[in-house]
């Protein structure tokens, strides 16, 4: 029993009514509370017990909330530092790096001519981050209103890591420009969602003002570290590898930390969410791989007319239309999980059958199977996500799981063509090694 000198009724005013005390006792102790004691006169000790218990619950909840808010502040503060380190570390490195690369490739030009030419390119490079962030800030702000702050914050840390890795591994101007642009996306995610988390977790205006001021202090620290560290490490190593590799290592640890925290939060929804989203990703990846490769494969094997290339994916679309419009009731009666497993198998069989097609009419059959399978997955798995949330969480989690599902679709369409391109390149390299030079010509 919680010892305190204040009166019970001052500690918990809501329990001034004896009936409310009875109801609270029945909720807290359903196994030992006897409903036959409904008319038993209430004693002061009954009110005392319930009041003390709820005082402990309130204190525990307040402590947990303070720890959570402090953890969010630390995460956002570190993210602000890393974001601005990556922002400023390039300033003493990239102009000199690009100048040296240009001087080696064009020995005849004078130093003044090279600097004059590179001045505009450096300006475009540095401006690309701000221009990209100018556009994405509004998109990220809209996203946070639909799915919350934690997922965009985690995605932002991943983009910062990607940007740093591109800086580390690339030397061409176009890749450096891409790294700077990717940094703009990551910075937008981290800043918008990070400040949003701070504002939502600190309700008191005075406390929120102090915390936001401290958070902005991370920007100043990151700028100071970036300028000095970039110049010193670049001079020490005579290469951009060391400073960017160090930043990449720190960002890797930070990103893994964010993914771990987010996975713990996401696991509170339901573990089956990952299975459902994974099935959507696998099925969609088949189309993501086929879209850039199938037309070229048809041109190489079947020599079609131009209009025939345009209708290559028509059977795919018809299958998807049938799967989404006519199988919703079937999946509800038979079972959405069974339909999902069958649909994955159907997509797999269709994908395996495509290389064995010898004509365009035969190609429509596996294409139809793939489209039908993806349609069955979408019509069965998306309602299953809603059912999982209904059983395990509140309606506020709908936006989170459907955002994850859409991310899986985007990931499939974004990564699958890259995987396909790498696979085709490797196959061509093996073929060039095996074939004589005369055949290659």
From TrEMBL:
Predominant localisation class: membrane
InterPro entries (alphabetical): MFS, MFS_dom, MFS_trans_sf, MFS_Vesicular_Transporter
Cellular-component GO terms for this entry: synaptic vesicle membrane; terminal bouton
Residue intervals of the Major facilitator superfamily (MFS) profile domain: 272-441
GO biological process: aminergic neurotransmitter loading into synaptic vesicle
Subcellular location(s) per record: Membrane
Membrane topology: Multi-pass membrane protein
Gene Ontology molecular function terms on file: serotonin:sodium:chloride symporter activity
Keyword field contains Hydrolase: no
Domain of life (superkingdom): Eukaryota
Keywords recorded for this protein, A-Z: Membrane, Transmembrane, Transmembrane helix, Transport
Name of the featured protein: SLC18A1_2
């Amino acid at each position: 029993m919680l010892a305190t000198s204040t009166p019970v009724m001052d500690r918990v005013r809501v329990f001034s009514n004896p009936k409310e005390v009875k109801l609270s006792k029945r909720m807290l102790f359903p196994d030992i509370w006897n409903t036959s004691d409904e008319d038993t006169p209430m004693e002061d000790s009954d009110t005392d017990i319930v009041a003390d218990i709820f005082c402990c619950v309130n204190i525990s909840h307040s402590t947990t909330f303070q720890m959570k808010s402090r953890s969010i502040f630390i995460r956002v503060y570190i993210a602000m530092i890393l974001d601005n380190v990556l922002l400023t570390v390039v300033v003493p490195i990239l102009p000199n790096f690009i100048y040296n690369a240009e001087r080696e490739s064009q020995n005849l030009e004078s130093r003044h001519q090279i600097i004059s030419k590179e001045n505009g390119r450096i300006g475009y490079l540095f401006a690309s981050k701000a221009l990209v962030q100018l556009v994405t800030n509004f998109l990220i702000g809209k996203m946070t209103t639909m799915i919350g702050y934690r997922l965009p914050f985690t995605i932002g840390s991943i983009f910062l890591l990607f940007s740093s890795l591109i800086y580390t591994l690339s030397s061409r101007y176009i890749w450096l420009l891409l790294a700077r642009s990717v940094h703009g996306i990551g910075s937008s995610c981290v800043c918008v969602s990070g400040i949003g988390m701070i504002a939502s977790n600190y309700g008191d205006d005075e406390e929120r003002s102090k915390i936001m001021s401290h958070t902005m202090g991370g920007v100043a620290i990151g700028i100071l570290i970036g300028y000095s560290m970039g110049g010193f490490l670049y001079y020490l190593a005579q290469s951009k590898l060391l400073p960017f590799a160090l930043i990449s290592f720190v960002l890797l640890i930070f990103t893994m930390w964010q993914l771990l925290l987010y996975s713990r939060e996401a696991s509170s929804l339901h573990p089956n969410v990952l299975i459902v989203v994974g099935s959507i990703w696998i099925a969609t990846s088949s189309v993501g791989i086929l879209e850039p490769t199938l037309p070229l494969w048809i041109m190489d094997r079947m020599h079609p007319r131009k209009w025939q290339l345009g209708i290559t994916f028509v059977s795919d679309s018809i299958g998807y239309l049938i799967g989404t419009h006519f199988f919703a009731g079937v999946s509800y009666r038979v079972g959405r999980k069974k339909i999902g497993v069958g649909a994955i198998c159907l997509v797999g069989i269709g994908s395996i059958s495509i290389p064995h097609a010898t004509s365009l009419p035969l190609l429509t059959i596996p294409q139809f199977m793939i489209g039908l399978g993806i349609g069955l997955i979408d019509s069965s798995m998306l309602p299953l996500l809603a059912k999982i949330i209904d059983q395990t969480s509140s309606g506020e989690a709908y936006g989170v799981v459907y955002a994850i599902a859409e991310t899986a679709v985007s990931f499939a369409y974004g990564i699958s063509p890259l995987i396909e391109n790498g696979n085709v390149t490797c196959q061509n390299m093996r073929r060039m090694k095996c074939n004589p030079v005369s055949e290659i010509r």
